[in-house]
Design a protein that fits this description.
Helix content is 31%, strand content 21%. The protein is α/β, with parallel strands linked by helices. The chain folds into 2 domains: 2-51 and 387-439, Urease, subunit C, domain 1 (Roll), CATH 2.30.40.10; 54-385, TIM Barrel (Alpha-Beta Barrel), CATH 3.20.20. Strands 3-2-7-18-21-22 form a 6-stranded mixed β-sheet, with helices on one face. A 5-stranded parallel β-sheet has the order 12-13-14-15-16. Helix 8 runs parallel beside helix 9 (249-260) and helix 9 packs parallel to helix 10. The two termini are 33 Å apart.
């Protein structure tokens, strides 16, 4: 048995000084402080620390055999636990000529025996998905994979670098109908494809292909038009929608307005979108900041934090694509820059440092955006995302005395970080996964055999209305 005592504990019922009793893999009790531990109980002294549920990364792209330039499940999940994240949701991408079950099998090969965290996958539909694949939605929901992703744009001009996963609105209607009927959740990368590729064409004609023009290609207007079109279709089909990587104030507004109407619409932003803006692209090797669609303007960046603070946005994610510095800076035009970054380790610490320490976000809201809401939206709550009796003992103990700029020596994934030099005001000190101490006072004690595949089922409360 383990007793965590002395810290400020954030529970579903509020934050306070509580003792957490852990037996086996689950939380046995959350009690008033002062109970004396008996023999055989390991005591973790969290005095002066903040104790929160292990983080949940809802949006990460893990490399596999078809993408050797990306880091795989073992190094990414290792970095995740170092950063206080104990559950990672990856993607299972359909490829032409194969169905969604094949995609799930590919994802399983990446993760089995290579996971420091618990994990699951969102199946992604490829361009031109056939009716048989779309009909598999109900089967996969029953199998414990209730969340699916589509792209409304091919993102970049045609190239051998990137598979085209654009879903047209005809197929999207059918996908939404099937997701709604099965009780699932639909993730949408939402940009107007016509606008994006028109902008690419103009940039080519104007000689404006340098990477720092990315926000003019993947524009605010494109996000606005596409979000509202998807929301309109969702209203007709009854499909719950989770907009990934909201990047513009227009996206925040569209999500907020739909939620005010009672629609089950959810929005995610990325911590790099919330901390950098398009001016950062102008730095030397400024493509290091890029994640598709793009960084936007300073007022957009500020509005993302407003959305996280006031509830219009539900989660903060990374859209991780972890590569080396060489691979990240290899391409230099708006048509080919490598998206994503290796931010899975910094997500919890940055969200606390900016959200709580600098902007006054409550600890309860911090837990919402880093753990609890993702658990609810994707069918893991209260097994995950809560410090409560019966929940998995996934715990992150943050140390506020870690108050300084980050160095590369603090981090554990790849040979660069866009967060190097960023001043943080707390950092994970001790992390537990299902009752096992996997980071012990900033020393690794976990193993890649620790993680398990999760079976998920989205609550009807989440799919009927904006419940978190």
């Amino acid at each position: 048995m383990i007793l965590i005592t002395g810290g400020t504990v954030v529970t579903p019922f509020g934050a306070g000084e509580f003792d957490i009793w852990i037996e086996g893999e689950t939380i046995n009790a959350v009690s008033e402080p002062g109970t004396v531990a008996g023999p055989g109980v390991r005591v973790i002294d969290a005095a002066g620390k903040i104790v929160v549920p292990g983080g949940i990364e809802p949006h990460a792209h893990i490399g596999g055999a078809r993408q050797p330039e990306r880091s795989g499940a073992e190094p990414v999940s290792l970095a995740a636990v170092w950063g206080g994240t104990t559950t990672v949701l990856d993607f299972a991408t359909q490829i032409p000529g194969h169905d969604l079950h094949h995609a799930i099998g590919e994802a399983a090969e990446r993760w089995q025996g290579s996971a420091y965290t618990d994990y699951s996958y969102h199946p992604i539909f490829t361009n031109g998905a056939d009716r048989a694949s779309i009909a598999q939605i109900g089967e996969l929901v029953e199998d414990g994979f209730p969340s699916f992703k589509i792209f409304t744009t091919s993102i970049r001009p045609p190239s051998p670098q990137m598979q085209d996963n654009k879903t047209d609105f005809g197929r999207l209607t059918s996908i939404m109908e099937n997701v709604a009927q099965a009780g699932g959740m639909l993730l949408v990368h939402s940009e107007d494809d016509d606008m994006v590729h028109y902008n690419y064409g103009n940039a080519h004609e104007d000689g404006s292909m340098d990477w720092w023009n990315m926000h003019h290609i993947h524009s605010n207007l494109s996000e606005d038009v596409s979000f509202r079109r998807v929301i309109r279709l969702a209203s007709k089909t009854g499909c719950p929608v989770y907009f990934v990587h909201v990047s513009a104030k227009e996206g925040v507004e569209a999500v907020g307005q739909a939620r005010m109407l009672g629609m089950p619409i959810y929005g995610e932003t990325l911590h790099n979108y919330a901390c950098f803006n398009a001016d950062s692209y102008r730095e030397d090797n400024g493509m290091k900041y890029h994640t598709y669609p793009s960084l936007k303007f300073e007022d957009d960046r500020a509005e993302l934090w407003n959305g996280l603070l006031d509830g219009r946005l539900s989660t903060v994610a990374t859209d991780l694509v972890s590569t080396t510095w060489e691979e990240k800076t290899r391409f230099k035009t708006v048509a080919d820059v490598t998206g994503g970054h290796n931010g899975i380790e910094t997500r919890m610490g940055i969200a606390y440092s900016v959200g709580v320490a600098e902007l006054g976000m409550s600890l309860d809201r911090f837990v919402d955006i880093t753990s609890a809401n993702a658990a609810k939206i994707f069918g893991m709550y209260p097994q995950k995302g809560a410090i409560a009796p019966g929940s998995d003992a996934d715990i992150c103990i943050l140390d506020p005395s870690f108050d300084r700029p980050l160095t590369l020596e603090d981090l554990h994934l790849e040979d660069y970080s866009i967060w190097e030099g960023w001043h943080v005001h707390a950092w994970p000190q001790t992390v537990l996964l299902r009752g096992k101490v996997v980071i012990d006072e900033r020393k690794l004690t976990g193993s890649p055999a620790d993680g398990r595949l999760l079976q998920r089922s989205v609550s009807a409360e989440i799919t009927r209305r904006p419940a978190c």
